[in-house]
Amino acid sequence: MSHPPPVRGPAPHAPEVSSSSLGALSRAVLALLVLGLITAGALGVSRWSAARTIPARAPLPDTVPTTGRVHDFVLEAAPTTLPLLDGRGLEVWAYNGQVPGPTLRATVGDTVRVRLTNRLPQPTTIHWHGIRLPNGMDGVPGVTQPPIEPGASFTYEFQVKDAGTFWFHPHLRGSEQVERGLFGLLIVEEPSPPAHSRELVWVLDDWRLDERGQIDPRFNTRGDLAHDGRWGQVLTVNGAFQPTVRVRPGERLRLRLVNVANGRVFSPALRGVDAQLIAFDALVTDRPLPAEGLTLAPGNRADLLLTVPPQLRGGRVQVVDRFGRGERVLAELEVEGKPAAPPQALPPL
């Protein structure tokens, strides 16, 4: 098993920008803005004419037919110790004793009912990231609901109207509670999913560890706030450091990706595998698109179809993060086993 790099010095963050650079940048942005306004005025009529020829996507329906099905889930948020990262015990906060938390599943038109009990040393809530739901179920403390105090419970209930990959997390002290491990997935199945042999769910995250190898308890530092959030020095997939995932030659996988990091942007590259983007933030693409250059900011989700070439049998494929300088290994695909039947052809690009 690979081991995370030793902790030496401060965790990485975005490079600092001087005030003179910011001034020059501001002037450049202003110049571009003025130029854009002038150009827009000169070409307004032609741009409007061209825009009218672009077909508009139908708006999302306000209501969907109910299926009559109700899914009851029970979640408990509590401190625990889990063998994450390289397998050593990591002190975390978790839903139902696992990180990532449970993956909840439903189908469009179903009703989801989730009872959360708070065993944390501080109040919490759950926000359903990307889900269209009643305002009272959105999990914003002091706005849509009272905070869930330690020892108390709250029940969330809503109908799922849209298919896609969603996730849930606290909206109270989220910069700490999410970083300690409180996140999970809600997957809403579409009535007619694209053809694939099986599904993989990958939750991408980074962890800032202190000298003890535990989660650094210093949250919202001046460095974090002055840059672009908290960056960790250990990257994981589903809480594991550089895991190996076995796949069959010739098979097609549906890969659901979620970035739950606080500040880090991921750009996963799957070399040697045919990767097609079919949805981004639960919005389905008109057709499969090449996934090369895919970038996931914090909170983004992407659905991919991966086709493993038969000739890769017996080989390995590294999945690397290419955002910023250098590359960092996220996971490795080990291609072995009996070749799968040829997958159904995808629509042309």
TrEMBL record:
* Stated name of the protein: Multicopper oxidase domain-containing protein
Cross-referenced InterPro entries: Cu-oxidase-like_N, Cu-oxidase_2nd, Cu-oxidase_fam, Cupredoxin
Membrane-traversing stretches: 24-45
| Source organism of this protein record | Pyxidicoccus fallax
Membrane among the record's keywords?
yes
Family annotation (PANTHER family): MULTI-COPPER OXIDASE, MULTICOPPER OXIDASE LPR1
* Alphabetically ordered keywords of this record: Membrane, Transmembrane, Transmembrane helix
Which Gene Ontology CC terms are recorded?
A: outer membrane-bounded periplasmic space
Instruction: Report the GO molecular function annotations.
Output: copper ion binding; oxidoreductase activity
Pfam families for this protein = Cu-oxidase, Cu-oxidase_3
State whether keyword Protein biosynthesis applies: no
Where do the coiled-coil regions begin and end? none
| Domain Plastocyanin-like: start-end pairs | 85-191, 218-308
